Amino acid sequence: MAQNKINLQNKVVVPNAGRFLGKLCWFTIHGDIDVSRDRLEEIFVQTGMDLKYMPPPIRPVDVFRRATSRVEKYDIPYKKNHLNILVREVKSDKDQVVRQLVLEEVDSQNVRLFYTTAASLTFDRNHGTIVPQIFNNHPAVFQAADEALALYKTSLDRYQGIHIRRMVGDILKTMKPTSVRPSGGVFFVPAVYNEDLDKLQEVVRALRSEFFNMPVVDTVDTREMICDKLHQQINATLSVLAETLKNKDISSKKVNVLVVEAKDLLDQVKEYESLLQQDLSGLKEKIDLVKMQMVALLEAA
Hints:
Layout: E1 20-28, E2 34-36, H1 37-47, H2 60-69, E3 73-78, E4 81-92, E5 96-106, E6 112-124, E7 129-134, H3 139-155, E8 158-160, H4 161-173, E9 178-179, E10 186-190, H5 194-206, E11 210-217, H6 220-245, H7 252-276, H8 281-300
Antiparallel strand pairs: 1-10, 1-11, 2-8, 3-4, 4-5, 5-6, 6-7, 9-10
Helix pairs in contact: 2-3, 6-7, 6-8, 7-8
Pfam families: DUF6744
InterPro entries: DUF6744
């Protein structure tokens, strides 16, 4: 009986058999995370994660905006119709932020009948306090205002899922990741960052979220896959940079930020060139061209 032959021609790079190029990783940050800054710093120390990656302290004004946004309510029964409570920011300056609770009445056909300002919440930037003013005596208005005040108090100095997701993304960026899925979410990280990646995994899991990684064996196929995804990622980023530079009103500060981003791209390409043992001069030339455009813009400013 004839046996099927397995073609191994492109599967293993013999000189590096058993070598790992790096790891694939993916993570899910749960939205119900609620952790204090002290606790997060404690987790960093326990896992050996460098404290320089701690997210910045939470700004009270941001907590105020999140707390008020969360009290929007819909479909509150009202006579033969129903009410919605909407939140609108009406003022923001160096001293205060004012957000209003707006009552919207909607009929059974979802036709908006009227709007009225039901309450005003004024945040004092200098003292971190909130002064409420109620203009409508509907119980839902009082409830929404009280809920906003309570949420503000309980959320100060506490990180939510959005903060942790941003923090994890920022830490991951320092490891020169390459996205390997068109929709994102799965990244290749070079082996030189294995220790840092393991620490990040410990941090995420300590926050009761999910983080997984798996080694990538050095084969011709995996090298080609990583190289192809790197080209796609760099070219996409360069396209965005080039489009941004077409904006005639772009500030020199923004251009400086883009210059740093281009430098980071160049460093990533050089690192992958060494890792994959492939000539990536084409990518480096594209990056250098965009950098030249940026420098020219800075000199003309």
